[in-house]
Amino acid sequence: xxxxxxxxxxxxxxxxxxxxxxxxxxxxxxxxxxxxxxxxxxxxxxxxxxxxxxxxxxxxxxxxxxxxxxxxxxxxxxxxxxxxxxxxxxxxxxxxxxxxxxxxxxxxxxxxxxxxxxxxxxxxxxxxxxxxxxxxxxxxxxxxxxxxxxxxxxxxxxxxxxxxxxxxxxxxxxxxxxxxx
Length: 181
Fold this sequence. Notes:
This protein has 5 helices and 10 strands; from the N terminus they run ββββαβαβαββαββα. The chain has helices spanning 35-45, 54-61, 78-90, 127-133, 149-180, and strands at residues 2-4, 7-9, 25-26, 29-30, 50-53, 70-74, 106-108, 115-118, 135-139, 142-146. The strands form 3 sheets. It has a 4-stranded mixed β-sheet. It has a 4-stranded mixed β-sheet with strand order 5-6-8-7. It starts with a strand and ends with a helix.
């Protein structure tokens, strides 16, 4: 068993968009790596409140964009977190029901499903805003909410700002180390 976040799981192989013919959007449906279909089906069956974000959402609006993984932004409420935990248990994952209550949480399932479940960052766009602006779509033929272009822009800008802040820190560290030699 591998341990990732607070969930444990068995290791399995992953796929890629290449197996899908290099496309994520076909008509009104997004498609992705096969095992992710069961994850989405279980989340929807448990009535988990989530929005598709990241590369798959960008592929919805910009069909030439290919996505390697599946990012789902989940509503960080007590009820929703418990529903997520219940859905994940059905897939063989184990974890506490309060895992998705914290803001800025990122639980990665890349060795099994090549997916991430995230909660909004504390100082970033909030779930209610992203959800209210979302557009209806389908993922594996199942109805889902897909982040709007405006929400994706806000999320990407937030990520870029964070990356730039980290880059500045690393550049300063490099300068310190180079001067230390």
